[in-house]
Structure formats: C-alpha cells, structure tokens
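Exercise 7b. Backbone tokens:
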C-alpha cells in the first residue's frame, strides 16, 4: 500500500538523536522483549503488538511478555495470542527477560507498573527503551520517549516509527493494533482527541487496510452477558455527590464474583456518569481482593483527576484519565475518598 505522497507535518517531533539510538540498538540486538503495564488495555497491547509486528518484519527475534493476560475484549487483536503472560507462563516470562539484550517498555514509566515482572525487569542488564505518554517518568532507561501531551502510546509509537522510516513495515494487522490503542485511549476520539496528528495517522492506517468500523464494534460494542449485567448493576449503584459535581461507583469482591466477573467486564464503566451534564468527574472503586482496591477516575474539561490519584492513591495519569490503588478494604477506600473530595472543590 502506498504511503503518504507528501511528508506529513506532525506536530509531535521526536529528537533525531533518540531515533538514531533506537535504530542502532535494534540493529545490533539478538533477543528483544516488549513489555507493558499490568492489566493491559488497548493502548498497552496495541502499541506492544504493533511494535512486535514491525520488529519481526525487520527480521528480529522478539516476544511480548506481560505480568498478566489480555482481557477477553482484546483477544481479537492481531498477534495477541502469542503473548507470554507471567500468570500462565511464569518461568518462560522470566527466562525471556533474562535472555533479552533489548527491552521495550510500552505505555508505562514506573517499574512498579509491571507488577510481578518488576524484579526481573530491574535486574535485567538489557538496554531499555521507554515509549510512553504518562506524566513524570520514574524509570531508568537508555532511551526515554515521554510525551504526556500525546493522547496515546500508540500514536507516539506511530510517530516514532515514521521518523525511523519504519512505518513502511506496518501492515493491516499492526495498523489495527495502533488504531485500537488510539481509539481506546480517547474514548473513540471523544476526549483528548483534538490533536491533528491523530487524523494524519488514521489516514495512513486506513490506507493500510484497517476496518475501523469493525474495530469499533469489537472493542466498544461487543459484550458478554456478564459484562452487560455488571455494567447495568454498577450504574444502578452509582452515587451522585451533586455538591461536588462527582459520581462514585463501587463494586465489592463479592459483587464481582456474583456476576462472574472477568477482566475487562467493567471497562468503560467509569466514563458513563460523565454523560450527566452536572457531573464533572467520575470515580470507580473496584475491590479486586480484600486488601486491594483499584481506583479509576475520569473527568471533563480541565479538572484534573490525576491530582487526586497522585495525592491520595499512589497513582497518576492524565488530566482527564487517571488511576491508582488503595491497600485496604473497599469501605475504607470509600471512606478516604469521601473525606478528600471536598478539598478539590476549589478546582471545579
């Protein structure tokens, strides 16, 4: 498929010295590992497998290794069934990381975000390249491409590939991976999506043959029975704090079990309360275990939920999308949340 007839003028530009270093590291590498954050989403898996396809096209030995498995909703992604997840292949995951001479860290900037793979990642002597769009990197690496202003790691990866003159190795499968990550990290281009670079990228991905309508159907409009039921129940349980323009949804470990919860079944639940005009930000507390509560937050406009996550839940993210964790029972997490929410009214 033909590429752009003219050189596109991307607003985001990666320093040429970084691109040259990446190309040199890839050239001399023998065993490459690509990894991404725990509980991988569309952007993490999309960027990882798009890069996997490109490196394979360059003739490289490469594996995608993650702490846990892909959610059911993303099993359609090309290549994803080649994933080596430590929850299922722990010994092989550790062996691949130990053997690697080059590791790409996609869509995370803190070693703690790879969970059970943190120790092997930190002890690895391999060169490391980080490509990520989250705030405040806390990772040591030989190359760090960190651009929080870019809406997704997939978009940042495409620009990196383009500058390296590797975008020509993108095919329909890898293009679909990139589009999936761009779409999921912008809510199907409904927020954080005013960057013209996105649409230059989409133009080229469509020329490579992606079916964007089908990708939307698979990601946004395909659900299991358990997902439909738990999403409805979560909305029914929604608590509105009108005086703070906030909404809270909580789901306990027992409730998750009652609905036969699978990873990914609550994806997008936190976004739904934002459709209420009076609500500025939405919070979802999911009790994955008795002493582990996952915190997800979304917002509208310039209200920063990243600030709340950073200051209270050992997390962070972006202005309109952030997350963190609370180590303790769900009722204590909710208690803390209700305690701190009023202090953020000044930012409304």
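Sequence design result:
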């Amino acid at each position: 498929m033909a590429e752009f007839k003219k050189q596109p003028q991307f607003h985001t530009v990666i320093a040429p010295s970084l691109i040259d270093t990446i190309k040199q590291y890839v050239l001399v590498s023998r065993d490459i590992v690509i990894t991404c954050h725990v509980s991988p989403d569309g952007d993490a898996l999309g960027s990882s497998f798009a890069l996997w396809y490109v490196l394979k096209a360059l003739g490289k030995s490469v594996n995608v290794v993650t702490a846990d498995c892909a959610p059911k909703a993303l099993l359609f992604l090309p290549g994803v069934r080649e994933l080596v997840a430590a929850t299922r292949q722990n010994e092989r995951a550790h062996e691949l990381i130990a053997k690697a001479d080059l590791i790409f860290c996609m869509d995370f900037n803190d070693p703690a975000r790879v969970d059970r793979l943190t120790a092997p990642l930190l002890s690895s002597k391999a060169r490391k390249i980080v490509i990520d769009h989250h705030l405040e990197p806390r990772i040591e690496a030989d190359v760090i491409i960190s651009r929080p202003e870019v809406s997704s790691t997939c978009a940042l990866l495409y620009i990196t590939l383009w500058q390296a003159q590797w975008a020509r190795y993108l095919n329909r499968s890898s293009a679909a991976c990139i589009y999936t990550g761009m779409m999921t990290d912008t809510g199907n281009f409904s927020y954080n999506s005013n960057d013209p670079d996105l649409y230059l990228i989409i133009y080229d991905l469509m020329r490579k043959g992606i079916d964007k309508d089908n990708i939307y159907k698979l990601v946004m409009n395909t659900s299991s029975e358990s997902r439909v039921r738990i999403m409805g129940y979560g909305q029914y349980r929604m608590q509105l704090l009108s005086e703070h323009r906030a909404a809270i949804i909580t789901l306990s470990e027992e409730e998750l079990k009652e609905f036969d919860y699978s990873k990914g079944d609550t994806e997008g639940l936190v976004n739904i309360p934002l459709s209420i005009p009076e609500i500025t930000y939405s919070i979802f507390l999911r009790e994955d275990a008795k002493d582990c509560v996952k915190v997800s937050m979304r917002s509208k406009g310039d209200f920063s939920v990243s600030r709340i996550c950073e200051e209270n839940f050992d997390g962070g993210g972006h202005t309109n999308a952030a997350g963190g964790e609370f180590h303790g029972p769900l009722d204590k997490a909710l208690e803390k949340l209700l305690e701190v929410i009023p202090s953020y009214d000044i930012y409304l």
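Instructor comment: The longest strand covers residues 281-289. The mean pLDDT is 95.
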